[in-house]
Design brief:
The complex is a heterodimer. Chain A is built from 29 helices and no strands. Chain A is mainly α. Chain A has a domain of 209 residues: Hypothetical protein af1432, CATH 1.10.3210.10. Chain A is globular, with a radius of gyration of 26 Å. Chain A starts with a helix and ends in a 6-residue tail after the last helix. Chain B is mainly alpha-helical. Chain B contains 18 helices and no strands. The longest helix of chain B is centred in the last third of the chain and has 24 residues. The radius of gyration of chain B is 26 Å and the shape is globular. The relative contact order of chain B is 0.08. Classes of the chains: A mainly alpha, B mainly alpha.
């Protein structure tokens, strides 16, 4: 190595990153951002090839470290800078890796939309490079993002794509192992046990010792999943084999996550073999440990509830269920708020330094500038799409309801800009759905009392996520999120308000929301034609909905369909309805 | 024909209202308390089917005229109106665009409402959209100005196919321009393309098609029904702003072509009122669409630095202090 290349390769950025690593635990988000700032600045200009590769490697290692410590959000800025650098240098391979890292970090911070964006970019680059393994990895990561959003059926489709992408590649391939492992877990969650077992066994065949060393936790998850599947198929001997394997792997890695996974696996087996008491004791222990790691708490609590039910302790099972629902709620709301804080941090580094100064600045800016979009609006929109994804495969439920609400507001005589604001605020009405377990949302039949209770909490969760009040639109969105399930006759939730005491925009959104759910067949509804849905609205006029608004809404739909030549009586579901919504969304030079 | 019966008290109230008296002075001269007077006055408005004092007085003048006994000293309504030149008069003398001036930004597609809406939505305007906006504004201003030759020029330059793909609504405007300008064959060609397109995919709404067809019938065959259809498009609330504004502007030119000066004047006035309503809506949303600052800048004296307005200066220094 000549003196020059040595000088180029030994970059101060790498030293800085390596210096930061040991101090990570003591640094909070702001300190870390300040520490990383010089690296980000360095990455803004094009680096020489040798230095770029090394800085990128150490940046990825740093991000991996943050990811495993549950601080993905703090690494996002660094990963983005590497991505920007790769674009500057026109380095496609690095760009693909950087976008995939960005995507994984974004998914971990609840930004599913951003994650899918990044992964789609990685997929496009993989397509361009004709690398089947890279394609499979990208599909795998997209599946993971859908899994984070809680839409397992879409995730399963992505994993299947990953498997087909690398069918032709011979030998043990890491992405094949990962894809079949993920696919097996996804199928287990969607209830297709036979297929799950098939792919689980496939993953077992594809495994290579080096994969296990690299990521022992995923190997444990594979074994655990297989153990559960064998138990449910009644193949106890094979299940016992997997339980033993899990114990060995967990002892080797000895991370708290692995130990919890091992305990729940063992307990599942013990429950099936009738050792309920031992299983319960084991689970209590695991639960104590899981309280320290929020990501594992949900799964563990699920196991505990099953065990208590099996032991016949209905009361205690109920207490645990309540704890589970509180946990799911808090976890979702906190994650959303954390994401918003992160978005604010990314947009303006000066923000958040001093709350009073901040407020003064915001007031002054609002005096000097004409009113515009709230600062974190994009982040809110992403959260709302991610929340709706588990109910609606397109994720566009919010946008459609927004367009319908805007049209209804215009028909009610609101000024155009006012109607626009109402429509935009209505897009976020289901942002609180993130707090509802996905099993409840994807269920087609009627819900029982406890499940309904969980579903009804999404109105409160929405209001809690939208608690920022620096912009009138967010205030309006909060009212809509809170009251869009309030009924005209006062029998709705969360509080029993009725009639004109429900804010007008929430009443408008309620009509549009119900209409969209009926036409698209979301939740418990089957898909209807547009006319059938209008009939259903009319039946509920005066009960669930404001009768005046129902009349106006009907006029809007009839007018628009006639104007656009759309037949509202034939096809059920999205097709022609989407056409209608598109025409409502078109601005045509106005709004 | 006024068929409402009014009694002496009503008549007395109307007389006083016509003289511009306030509620209190009416109460004083009729010997009631002010609250009672207000109740009587509202009873009167309800009886006449009007909403306020002004409309009550107009109703009264109409009644007097019908009765053939316009009160001594009070001029007829037309005379009152004719004393002041209205917007419609200027529009007739010049053209609606010159009369509207800067206010034209509140009418037509891609006007100020669109710009503000984009800002509220957080949408950045890309160059392609900006080009479409310019094209659309030019067409709209040509329609207001009566520059029908501009439409013919576009047609001769074979821009119709491009317009159809880019922005079908602009094609509707072009068809209106050609039709009013008397370029019948060109207008027919554009309309044919518009209607044919409608069958394939949405892009042009039924109302927009109704606009061009009723404009054709109103001008060519002078059908009363077509004129009524055009009028409906211009006044109905359920019609979206785009065909509505275009129908209003077209109606002005149609009335002018039909030599119906009074209706043309009234149509221009309605156009102005629409622009004013949009401006007020924007204002109510906290916008200052025409200007941001009403202060008159001082002339700069040589040597001295230009002084910004007091309010602007203090705000700017405070902001600078906060940011630093």
């Amino acid at each position: 190595m000549t003196a020059t290349t040595r000088f180029l390769a030994e970059s101060p950025s790498i030293d800085l990153l390596q210096g930061l690593e040991p101090r990570l635990a003591q640094m909070d988000r702001r300190e870390l951002a300040e520490g990383l700032a010089p690296v980000l600045v360095r990455l803004q200009e094009r680096l020489p090839d040798a230095e770029r590769a090394r800085v990128a490697e150490s940046a990825f290692a740093f991000c991996r470290r943050l990811y495993s410590n549950g601080r993905s959000g703090d690494g996002l800025a660094l990963a983005r800078s590497v991505l920007a650098q790769s674009i500057l240098a026109d380095d496609a391979a690095l760009e693909r890796r950087a976008s995939s890292v960005c995507g994984l970090l974004a998914a971990d911070t609840a930004d599913v939309v951003g994650a899918i964006d990044y992964q789609a970019r990685a997929l496009a680059l993989a397509d361009a490079s004709r690398d089947p393994t890279a394609r499979a990895t990208a599909w795998n990561n997209i599946g993971l993002a859908f899994g984070v959003a809680g839409n397992y059926s879409l995730a399963v489709q992505c994993y299947r794509r990953a498997l087909t992408a690398e069918e032709q590649v011979p030998g043990a391939v890491r992405s094949r192992y990962t894809a079949s492992n993920n696919l097996s877990i996804g199928l287990y969650l969607t209830g297709d046990f036979a297929a799950a077992l098939r792919f689980g066994e496939l993953a077992l065949q594809a495994v290579d010792p080096s994969f296990v060393d690299e990521n022992p936790h995923s190997a444990i998850l594979l074994r655990r999943n297989l153990a559960r599947l064998y138990v449910s198929a009644g193949r106890m001997a094979e299940a016992a084999e997997q339980v033993a394997e899990v114990a060995v792997l967990a002892a080797k890695s000895s991370s708290p996550r692995s130990l919890i996974a091992a305990a729940t696996t063992r307990a599942t087996y013990e429950l099936a073999t009738g050792h309920t008491d031992i299983a319960l004791t084991r689970l209590e222990e695991a639960l104590e440990r899981a309280r320290g790691i929020p990501a594992t708490l949900r799964d563990t609590l699920g196991c505990v509830i099953h065990a208590e039910e099996a032991a016949g302790n209905a009361e205690r099972a109920l207490v645990r269920l309540r704890e589970l629902s509180d946990h799911v709620y808090r976890f979702a709301v906190d994650r959303a708020l954390d994401h918003l804080e992160l978005a604010a941090l990314c947009e303006g580094p000066s923000r958040g330094a001093d709350a009073r100064q901040e407020q003064a600045r915001a007031r002054l800016v609002s005096h000097l500038r004409p009113p515009g979009e709230p600062e974190e609006w994009k982040a809110f929109q992403r959260l709302s799409v991610a929340a709706v994804l588990r109910m609606d495969n397109t994720g566009w439920h919010g946008l459609r309801v927004g367009a319908l609400t805007k049209a209804l507001a215009l028909a009610c005589g609101c000024a155009p800009l006012q109607a626009l604001e109402i429509g935009l605020a209505a897009e976020l009405h289901d942002i609180g759905l993130a707090s509802v377990p996905e099993g409840i949302l994807s269920r087609k039949g009627a819900l029982n009392g406890a499940e309904r209770g969980l579903l009804e909490r999404h109105a409160d969760a929405g209001a809690e996520i939208l608690r920022d009040d620096r912009h009138p639109r967010i205030l309006m969105a909060r009212e809509i999120a809170k009251y869009h399930h309030a009924r005209w006759d006062g029998a709705g939730y969360p509080s029993r308000v009725g009639g004109k005491f429900i804010p007008l925009h929430a009443r408008m959104c309620a009509v549009a929301d119900a209409y969209d759910e009926m036409v698209c067949g979301l939740g418990a509804h089957r898909a209807m034609t547009m006319n059938e849905a209008l009939e259903a609205l009319r039946r509920e006029s005066g009960g669930q909905f404001d009768p005046d608004l129902v009349n106006r809404f009907e006029a809007v739909i009839r007018d628009e369909t006639a104007d656009r030549g759309i037949d509202p009586s034939t096809t059920a579901g999205l097709e022609s309805f989407q056409e209608l919504v598109n025409s409502l969304q078109e601005d045509r030079g106005f709004l | 024909m006024n068929i409402v019966d009014i009694n002496d008290r009503d008549r007395q109230m109307l007389e006083l209202l016509a003289q511009g008296a306030s509620n209190r002075s009416i109460a004083d001269s009729m010997g009631y308390r002010e609250g009672t007077m207000r109740v009587y006055l509202h009873g009167l408005y309800r009886k006449l089917g009007v909403g306020n004092k002004t409309s009550a007085v107009i109703w009264y003048f109409d009644r007097l005229k019908e009765e053939g006994r316009v009160a001594e000293g009070l001029p007829a309504v037309e005379a009152l109106v004719a004393q002041e030149e209205s917007f419609g008069d200027i529009a007739l003398r010049q053209d609606p665009l010159s009369a509207l001036g800067a206010m034209s930004m509140f009418l037509g597609a891609y006007g100020r409402v669109w710009e503000v809406g984009n800002r509220l939505k957080g949408v950045a305007v890309d160059p392609k959209t900006d080009q479409r906006r310019r094209q659309s504004r030019q067409l709209w201003e040509a329609l207001l100005k009566g520059d029908f030759a501009y439409g013919k020029r576009l047609f001769d330059e074979d821009q119709v196919a491009r317009l159809l793909v880019d922005s079908p609504a602009d094609c509707v405007l072009l068809a209106c321009l050609l039709r009013i300008g008397g370029f019948t064959r060109a207008a027919d060609r554009v309309m044919g393309q518009l209607v044919r397109r409608k069958k394939g995919r949405p892009g042009i709404s039924a109302k927009e098609v109704a606009l061009v067809t009723s404009l054709r019938d109103a001008l060519d065959s002078r059908e009363a029904g077509a004129l009524a259809a055009l009028h409906r498009l211009a006044v109905e609330n359920s019609v979206k702003p785009f065909p509505r504004h275009a129908a209003m502007a077209s109606l002005f030119w149609v009335y002018r072509a039909l030599k119906d000066i009074d209706r043309a004047r009234a149509t221009a006035n309605a156009l102005c009122a629409e622009a004013e309503a949009v401006r007020q809506q924007l204002h109510a949303m906290g916008e200052r669409p025409l200007y941001r600052d009403a202060s008159m800048p001082q002339p700069s004296s040589p040597g001295a630095k230009a002084t910004p307005s007091r309010q602007g200066k203090t705000a700017a220094t405070r902001l600078a202090a906060l940011v630093s």
